[in-house]
Model the fold of this input.
Amino acid sequence: MEKPLTQNIRTDGAPLYLKEYEQAGGYQALRKTITMTPKEVMDLVKDSGLRGRGGAGFPTGMKWSFVPMGDNAPRPKYLVANGDEMEPGTFKDRLLIEAKPHQLIEGMIISAYAIQADISYIFIRGEYTEGAEIIQKAIHEAYEAGYLGKNILGSPFSLEMHVHTSVGRYMCGEETALLNALEGKRATPRSKPPFPQSSGLFGKPTIVNNIETLSCISHIINNGAEWFKKLSLTGEGGTKLYGASGKVKRPGLWELPLGTTLREILEEYAGGMRDGLKLRGLLPGGASTDFLTEEHLDVNMDFTSVGKVGSRMGTGTIIVMDDKTCPVGFVHNLQVFFAQESCGWCTPCREGLPWVEKTLYSIEHGTGQMEDLDILSFHTKYLGPGNTFCPLAPGAMEPLQSALKYYREDFIKHINEKSCPWRS
Amino acid sequence: MLSEEERKEIEEEFKLYPHKQAAAIEAMKVVQKHRGWLSDESLEDLAALLEVSKDDLDGVATFYNLLYRSPVGKHVILVCNSISCWVMGYEEILHTLSEKLGIKYGETTQDGRFTLLPVPCLGTCDHAPAMMIDRDLHRDLKSEDIEKILEAYK
Ligand SMILES: Cc1cc2nc3c(=O)[nH]c(=O)nc-3n(C[C@H](O)[C@H](O)[C@H](O)COP(=O)(O)O)c2cc1C
Ligand code: SF4
Ligand code: FES
Done:
């Protein structure tokens, strides 16, 4: 099984710095890239079927194609790597940042070449202190080696690259809020249009891509679009970093063909549930995805297949809920997070999320009423897609609406017994 | 007054952005690195340097949970309170920390040694429960290990 993203990662956990990365074939893709036209690079990425790994699964090549090109395009153009990784339950970009920094940097240089960007930033959440230092050192190495800076490898192409370490807040991961954060402002989202591709950072054309997305790019250049497509089981292209956390035997992170089934990830790789516990449900890709249950285990983990059963692949890191964990408490924990992280820009989200959180709290603590279930259902629609300024609130409603569907009897039991059956 | 060193570091940051207002967050990080937190006076000095109003800068500072507008202890403990850590029992870890230190979330010990703060998912959920103390990540936490971990932070 090919594992391009994690191949050659050192077993001692130390980062792969320039020398080792080059020995493993690093920066060959960049050498090839500068012999191609930007359009050829873009087309190759389009043909590979690569879809964004930040959660939404937007086709990467297509996203790039909206950037104005040619001599009349506004300058400078920007490329931003999104390493905010604050979606609860998600721990995949950390590995790529800490263990294979040059794979990200090479992928960014190639991506920047495709859209002819002049300046690039790597946006890293503040808590990834070590990761930020590793990236900083790797960028320095890349400048020294002539992979960054003016006239890269003697070509007419030049690129600057900087690290920006963030100072908290989930909203920073939303791409337009991230641009505001990079401009030194509060991380509130911007209205679209204009889309960042035409007017983004400092009003200039900007592409924001996830760390894992960008880490795929050099492999596509080296091995071609067909090869990349065939890495996946279901044709969406590539491998995926899948993770599992919660009470499974072996929580962890694995690079597997895109489209591997939930069952295989949970049973073969995560080793199944801990002894004495049963699977109650799972969030397939982070806190803002709908619950799936036992009956969905044979679903292929790719964007289309998970969508068909009413959830999203999201970040691909699975949060497992066992049968000794209270579903109401579980969802309450998620809503504490979302209510706290709401940026406050729009009323439904600013006022709705705290209300949802309080309602869940009272149910969990035995003071809930039957009407509370209607209040919760109402919010899943009131904060649903199209009613708020950004996807934070609709995302928050995904685990809630599916919990009300799959675990309704548990909610009712709390209300009837006036206590949490798992706590008493 | 900003120190010579702070000023120099902030001016380095200016080079990475097209105008200096864009370096506002970086500038506040520099001051926090040197002083532990951002006082009203620091914000006034920074506002003057960045040529923005102090209120605007404060609006930015208060938005971000890792910029501290009140003093913190010598060591800051960030305990993950997100979902995987909740499933794996972070509440017990937090309880142990609270008992040992005699403080709750948001508080600082009398001797100024520790501040205890909640933090969303630390991105290490396969090793939950997790916390950070200053720049160090501590994972797979068990209540009985807490005392020993704290000892390393004098
Ligand atoms: C509240 C919120 C938080 C987000 N956080 C992240 C994040 O931490 N990392 C990320 O890559 N994308 C995040 N996204 C998605 C980004 O807005 C954007 O779609 C993504 O960075 C695009 O990259 P991709 O096309 O390579 O997936 C977030 C979205 C929302 C609404
Ligand atoms: S949905 Fe929530 S987080 Fe998004 S803009 Fe509105 S208030 Fe802010
Ligand atoms: S939920 Fe605590 S580290 Fe992810």
Notes: Chain B has a mean pLDDT of 96. Chain B is about 45% helix and 10% strand.
